[in-house]
């Protein structure tokens, strides 16, 4: 069964600290993995996309890694800001157009 | 802004009401989607339209009825909903329907069914 799991479910960190969010998946065959950021009351916005051959991708203070062998990805946030408070969703796509599996998300709260 | 707008942003309706959600994309995309997002659950794909033709319907109850009059507009008609239908309804669009194409999401409509 194609699944995407994320951990932790929620996380609270102090402003300025780093954090890492995890994503494990069983989607096969694999095409790509995206991390989305969803602010409260808004739709998700794509942060990064990685294909099978890529193992790291950065977007400002966000760095995503992918280990296609172990089917794991992480999203590392450096020097967190209050505006980073949001839900982060891992989305894994198979090679078939209809295989887009959303994870449940990690809720991140950055506090002063 | 992502180029995808949704109205209304908030909607409260009774179980006997009929209402419609509207989505408009200004990106020139040819595929549009409806998703349901309930608390603590992953996004659930409801409907997919490609070139104005419905190509996917994920076993959604008939009380939800989509309409895609052209490639820029998508509606979700609601009637005789249940309280468990309360959720955030998200519209998205993409250029093409392959899995590599990024979907751009609207801000959603927060629906409450009393």
> Which word captures the global form of chain A?
globular
Percent of sequence in beta strands of chain A: over 45%
Order of helices and strands of chain A: EEEEEEEEEEE
**What share of the residues of chain B lie within helices?**
under 10%
Describe the biggest sheet of chain A? 6 strands, mixed
Number of helices of chain A: 0
Can you count the beta strands of chain A? 11
Please report the distance between the alpha carbons of the first and last residues of chain B.
31 Å
Low-confidence stretches of chain A: none
Oligomer: heterodimer
Strand pairing plus helix content of chain A: what structural class? mainly beta
The backbone outline of chain B, from C-alpha atoms, is: globular
What is the total tally of β strands of chain B?
11
Q: Please indicate the percent range of residues of chain B in DSSP E strands (runs of 2 or more).
A: over 45%
Integer-rounded radius of gyration of chain A: 13 Å
Extract low-pLDDT stretches of chain B.
none
- Class of secondary structure makeup of chain B: mainly beta
Mean pLDDT of chain B: 90
How does this structure look, described?
The complex is a heterodimer of chains A (112) and B (114). Helix content of chain A is 0%, strand content 59%. Chain A has strands at 4-7, 10-14, 19-25, 30-38, 45-51, 56-59, 62-67, 72-77, 86-94, 100-102, 106-111. In chain A, strands 2, 4, 5, 9, 10 and 11 form a six-stranded mixed beta sheet that branches. Chain A has a five-stranded antiparallel beta sheet with strand order 1-3-8-7-6, with no helix packed on it. Chain A starts with a strand and ends with a strand. The mean pLDDT of chain A is 93. With 114 residues, chain B is an all-beta fold. Chain B is 0% helix and 56% strand. Chain B has strands at residues 4-7, 10-13, 18-25, 31-37, 44-50, 53-57, 64-70, 73-79, 87-94, 104-105, 109-113. Chain B is globular and about 35 Å long. The A-B interface holds A 4, 9, 31-32, 34, 41-46, 49, 51, 89, 93-105 and B 2, 4, 40-43, 45, 48, 56, 90, 92, 97-100, 102-103, 105-108, 110.
